[in-house]
Amino acid sequence: xxxxxxxxxxxxxxxxxxxxxxxxxxxxxxxxxxxxxxxxxxxxxxxxxxxxxxxxxxxxxxxxxxxxxxxxxxxxxxxxxxxxxxxxxxxxxxxxxxxxxxx
Length: 103
Prior knowledge:
Elements: H1 6-13, H2 23-41, H3 53-72, H4 79-95
Helix pairs in contact: 1-3, 2-3, 3-4
C-alpha cells in the first residue's frame, strides 16, 4: 500500500501525468520505497496509518530521487533521496513522540 501516487512522483519529475512511458519503472521504484518506509514505520508503531499526506510527499520525492539516480548514472545518493529520508524520520519521530506505539 503506497502512500504516494504515480501522479505525485511525476510532478517532482516534471513528467506529464498523461505520459505513461515511465509508469512501469516508477511503479517498481514506488513499491521498493514503500517497503522501506513500512520498515521505518515499524520502528515507531505497530499500526501504520492507511494514508498520510506528509508520508506521501516524502515517498514521492524519494522515488523521484531514485529515478534521477538511475538516469544520471551516479553512485552518490541523490539529494531528493537524502532529504526525503531525513525529513520522513523527523516527521515520524515527532508524530509518534520518538517511541514505539502499539495498536
